[in-house]
């Protein structure tokens, strides 16, 4: 029965680059949240599968920024879905359940933004502020700017590269049009 489910999974996900087969009993699916954020869900079939719940693994290197609360909620949801499907092939259903999973908290730990606690002198309450990283623009000296300008305009000897003004000539000729002599 496992071989049949494996073949069905291959045929369903053959054009889906987010699905991968790790070995005969382990499958991964990449859930893409936006351009640069995703997480992997790994499902492993134990010996008695599908009569037992498969092992659901989120402890993968690419998931290191997922919050523990998110991982726990997702595993609880998938385990509940798997218990409803005992005795039947369920890997496809579990991967589809992962795609439809909605979570109302922070999915990722915020590694680029640091949390700082500030004590207010007038009260005992604390306020959490977010300090965004500051990206400094590269500062050039006058001589560096001059060298850059000279390089763009033809180098040290002042000669501009051949054809630097061809666009201007073509635009001028297109504006003047052809003169027909009679």
UniProtKB/TrEMBL annotation:
<dbReference type="InterPro" id="IPR016135">
    <property type="entry name" value="UBQ-conjugating_enzyme/RWD"/>
</dbReference>
<dbReference type="Pfam" id="PF05773">
    <property type="entry name" value="RWD"/>
</dbReference>
<feature type="domain" description="RWD">
    <location>
        <begin position="4"/>
        <end position="105"/>
    </location>
</feature>
<feature type="region of interest" description="Disordered">
    <location>
        <begin position="141"/>
        <end position="165"/>
    </location>
</feature>
<protein>
    <recommendedName>
        <fullName>RWD domain-containing protein</fullName>
    </recommendedName>
</protein>
<dbReference type="InterPro" id="IPR006575">
    <property type="entry name" value="RWD_dom"/>
</dbReference>
<dbReference type="InterPro" id="IPR042770">
    <property type="entry name" value="RWDD4"/>
</dbReference>
């Amino acid at each position: 029965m496992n071989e049949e489910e494996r073949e069905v999974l291959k045929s369903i996900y053959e054009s889906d680059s987010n699905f991968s087969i790790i070995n005969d009993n382990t499958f991964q699916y990449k859930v893409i949240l936006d351009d640069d954020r995703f997480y992997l869900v790994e499902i492993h079939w134990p010996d008695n599968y599908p009569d037992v719940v498969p092992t659901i693994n989120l402890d993968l290197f690419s998931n290191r920024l997922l919050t523990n609360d998110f991982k726990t909620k997702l595993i609880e949801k998938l385990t509940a879905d798997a218990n409803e499907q005992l005795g039947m092939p369920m890997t496809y259903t579990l991967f589809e359940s992962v795609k439809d999973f909605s979570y109302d908290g922070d999915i990722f730990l915020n590694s680029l933004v640091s949390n700082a606690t500030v004590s207010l002198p007038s009260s005992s309450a604390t306020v959490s502020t977010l300090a965004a990283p500051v990206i400094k623009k590269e500062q050039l000296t006058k001589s560096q700017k001059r060298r850059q300008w000279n390089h763009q305009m033809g180098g040290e000897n002042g000669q501009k590269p051949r054809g630097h003004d061809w666009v201007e000539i073509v635009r001028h000729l297109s504006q003047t049009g052809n003169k027909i002599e009679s």
